[in-house]
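Checklist before submission:
- one chain only
- standard amino acids only
- sequence pasted in full

Submission:
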Amino acid sequence: MTAIRRLRIIEQEEAVSATTTTAAVRVAIATQDRKGLNAHFGSARCFDVYDVTADGWTHVETITFDTVSDEQGKHQAEGEDRITPKVDALKGCHLLYCVAIGGPSAAKVVAAKIHPIKMPQQSVESALERTRAMLAGSPPPWLRKVLAGAGLPVDKPSFVDDE
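Returned file contents:
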């Protein structure tokens, strides 16, 4: 059985109401050390979850797992499913950033309506800043689709010249 721990920061009521009025994309970042995007999905000990808007981001929670696969796909105890508990714990997220993710794991993540994105190792802040910049500008089509699927408002780009 996989042990899951959740760490949430409880904010004051006015701070919570301010963030709930702005539509946010919920992003999960696979990490080993909570400092960088540096873990494969299956071997990630932690997932830091953030709400990202065009103005910035807010840490929502950290989800920690006691038992994980190594980066070669080998489990400590064969036969135990380590992917489904992770996917279940990440429900409600819109995007998942990780260094790598296997095909069967990606299929489970997509079935949970989470968009997995493989990215090179980098700091958590640079991954969040990249998302914030996309939201502040004109989001690419794949992100507009994620936003629409999450029920968040999406401005369609105008292709009409301003002459």
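Reviewer check: Residues 32 and 45 are 5 Å apart (CA to CA).
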